[in-house]
Amino acid sequence: MFRRRSQDEQSSTTGTAVLEDNVRDPQAPKGRPTPKRSEAQTQRRKAVTTPTDRKAATRQARDARRTDMAKQREALAGGDERYLPARDRGPVRKFTRDFVDARMRVAEFFLPIAVLILVLSVVRIGSLQNLSLLLWLVVIVAIVVDSVVTGVRLRGLLRKRFPDKNVKGSVAYGLMRTLQMRRLRLPKPQVQRGTKL
Description:
By secondary structure, this protein is mostly helical. Helices cover 62% and strands 0% of the residues.
């Protein structure tokens, strides 16, 4: 069991090892043999180049995070799908953004109208304060009606255009986009108003 091999056995095993070395390993890339473990570890260490001190590691992580954020900002401004955040990626979300951006929505004027209502309510004239309350009511009702109509139309179009894709959350995504002023929307609008989808 634990005896030494004879000279004949050793020569026969070395002979087969030489024959096996000449045959190409099917898993080795480009026909070269698999590197030794120590060589592979050395190559990995050179490729990673992790800093040895904590400050350098923090600086390197901060720089990597900055470049990723810069790519995301450029993607949000230009609409490049590769670098968009996960919530904005995919054809369903792109169609939702285009659908919202193609028409003027009441909700996108909410902030300017709210500032106007606030100014009117501060003025010490009774008729202007009553007008501000009436305007507030009209704006809220108009936003609710426009949001319901937009949501129903968007849901129908999404089901028709993307029957095999998951459209969960896309209607809420579109309605939240309507609340932002067109100029401040991110990703930037890619279609002009009045575009037929």
